[in-house]
Amino acid sequence: QVRLVESGGGLVQAGGSLRLSCAASGILGRYTMGWFRQAPGKERESVAAISWSGGNTNYVDSVKGRFTISRDNAKNTVYLQMNSLKPEDTAVYYCAADAGGTTATMNVWVYDYWGQGTQVTVSS
Q: What letter would DSSP give residue 64?
């Protein structure tokens, strides 16, 4: 059984930092991992993605230079370091796994497994 569990969300002031973690279990193969977010009344948005090796990453333009995605395959964990947070970053953040291993894809429809989400709130 595949399971993805996010942690690290919370309330932070604008300009602050948070690091999200996503622990994966039950997935075999060289899977791509991604982070997505959904704010109230908005569609789910791709934030960042990373290939199995970690050598390929992609980011949505709005987070480039502020967020960093990384992974530790020995721990089956992917991270999202979020710096210089802005109120518009407020959302529920989800991690997801693409079992097919599409290199660092940002396409939400490709992902097979999803976590339950963690709330990130940035106050102004």
A: T
CB 4 within 8 A of CB 97: yes
Indicate the pairing of strand 67-72 with strand 77-82: antiparallel
Q: Is 44 exposed, middle or buried (0-12, 13-18, 19+ CB in 10 A)?
A: middle
Of the candidates 36, 35, 21, 14, the residue with the CA atom closest to the CA atom of residue 85: 14
- Pairing state between β 91-98 and 113-114: antiparallel
Q: Which residues pair with 69 in a beta bridge?
A: 80
Digit-coded pLDDT (tens) for 1-51: 999 999 999 999 999 999 999 999 998 889 999 999 999 999 999 999 999
CB under 8 Å to 79, separation ≥6 — which residues? Answer: 19, 20, 21, 22, 69, 70, 71, 72
Q: How many CB atoms lie within 10 A of CB 20?
A: 24
Alpha helices (runs of H) in 3-106, residue ranges in sequence order: none
**Nearest to residue 122, comparing CAs of 39, 2, 59, 7?**
39
